[in-house]
Amino acid sequence: MTESVKLFGRIGSPNVLRVALALEEKQIPYELIENIMIDEFLKNSRWGLMPCIEYQGNYISESLAILEFLEDQFPDKPLLPDSIVEKAQARSWMYRVALTVLDTRRKIWFGPDKEQAKQELKEQLEDINKELEGKTFLVANTYTLADLNLSLFYVALDEFKNVLGTDLDQLPNLKKHKEAITSRPSFKKLDPSESFAGFIKGMADEEIRAKIVASKQERIQKWKEQRS
């Protein structure tokens, strides 16, 4: 029987959701530990940030690195294709989505130039829409880490589409992809749209945002104390 993985973090965080989706898709048993102020997390998490996993006494941080670890450690039910070329293509899209689409969404919510970020997001989504022409998934006609990462953009998208300036009716291939991905059992089980929407709305309130920032700073300070 496969030993359970400990996942430290809250599913409302896109980075934590990224790891939880991989665990669900690969059917790896795991324990979700949402209290990240405990000593085990503070002592072993690099930089005191979510997510962090523990497996067989080893602790790994950074969500994209964790995905790679899970692929290597648990090769059954792979989330990367067999072909070396297609593996590289899937990884390329995985990082591309994380560093463009998801980061640009963050800029729209919290950055200084929201209109510029909206234009960048529009162009990035149009590029993905072209890539999906005639396909259900981004690479190798199968669900991979590339699709998993793009699914993070779909969380609470219907609620925030006006804020993001995103209309999937104008991007039919992407709309079809969203329908396919969000209907998967892993996404339906974990979908944190309600809590995620609450977090984003809270960050728009200066008082609530100050409390969230203060809580994060407190955690980082405790992490530094544990590491000193």
What's the total number of strands? Answer: 4
Q: Please compute the radius of gyration using only Cα atoms.
A: 18 Å
Q: At CATH's second level, what is the architecture of the largest domain?
A: Up-down Bundle
Structural class: alpha+beta
The dominant shape is: globular
Number of domains: 2
Question: How far apart, in Å, are the first and last alpha carbons?
Answer: 37 Å
Report the CATH C-level class of the largest domain.
Mainly Alpha
Provide structural commentary.
The protein has about 230 residues and is an alpha+beta fold. The protein folds into two domains: about 5-75, Glutaredoxin (3-Layer(aba) Sandwich); about 85-190, Glutathione S-transferase Yfyf (Class Pi), Chain A, domain 2 (Up-down Bundle), CATH 1.20.1050. It is about 60% helix and about 5% strand. The chain has eleven helices and four strands; from the N terminus they run βαβαββααααααααα. The protein has a four-stranded mixed sheet, covered by helices on one side. A hairpin with a 2-residue loop joins strand 3 and strand 4. Helix 1 (about 15-25) runs parallel beside helix 3 (about 65-75), helix 4 packs antiparallel against helix 5 and helix 4 (about 85-110) runs parallel beside helix 6.
